[in-house]
Each structure stands twice: as structure tokens, then as C-alpha cells.
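This part of the workshop introduces the protein records we will be handling. An example says more than a description, so a record of this kind follows.
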Amino acid sequence: MDFIRYAEAAAALLNADLSEVDGLVAYLDGRPGLQERAVDRDCMLLRKLQRELRPVFDAGESGDVPAVVAGLNELLARHPITPQISDHDAQHLHLHVWTGSGSVAEQVVGESLLGLSTLVCDLGADRLGVCSSAPCTNAFVDASPNRSRRYCSDRCSSRSNVAAYRARRRAEAERAGSFIG
């Protein structure tokens, strides 16, 4: 199991539009075995997970480690998972999540929780973030070496930097205008 990939997928899940199965299918891009089994019930269960995971990312953004740990522990208790070693690629043994029922939602929940829990234990709760570009509220996982990520995407980073640049230019112009008069 690539826990960073699973944790990033959990953040992407928070940002996904799961109002219809098409949104879930889009989220599951590259996973045809899950895409073909996605149903409305999976969307309903994953929307609930979105609501439950949001406070965990908010707590990570604010540096509230006890809230991150408590939130993840509560979710792990409610959604039991069984990690198993996969040998489908004998050169790269890794963990997969087994949930018992085989539903798409339970698979995604299991991967999300195990990925986030492992990430928090190995790299820290401060790796969970919420975009700093207003009005965006997308969640993200900061896998950068120096823990410097503040935005969910390059688009939001650029938008924020351009807005800051324009604000500085306006302030400079206002200061210059006050000296002339």
C-alpha cells in the first residue's frame, strides 16, 4: 500500500462531487474494477464519509493533533478494515485493504482511513491541510519535503499569488498618489 497515494485519494474524495454515480466514477478514474460496480448507495455512504473526514482535515490545518487522532480513531472504530499483504507483484509486496463486503464505498473508506492513519503516524498530522486560497476549501495532503504546501493546486496557488501581487501594486499606487497631492 502506498499510504501517501491513499491519503491523497482521501483528500481528493473530500473534494469530489458525489451527488451522482458519475461523480464517483470520475473520482475512481483508473480503477475500472471499482468504476463498473459503483452505485447510488456508494455515493450516499461516501458523502457521509466526506462530512466525517472534513473536521479531521480542518484539525490538521489548525495543528490540532489530538483532534486529528481522535477523529481518525473514531472512524477506524466504526469502519473495521483488515490490511493484507498483496503479492500480485512479487517484486513489490504491499498492503491492500480488505473490508469484507466488497462494496465500492467500503473499499474506498478502508483505503482512505488506513492511508490517512499511516500518513499521520509516519509524517505528522500537520500534513493534512485545507487550501489557503479564498474562497477555495479543498482538502490536500502535504507530501512536500519541507511541509510548505498551502494550496490544493497550482491553480489556487497562482490565483492567490496574482491577487497578492495586484494588492501590493494597488497599495504602492495609493502611497505614490498620496505623496503627489
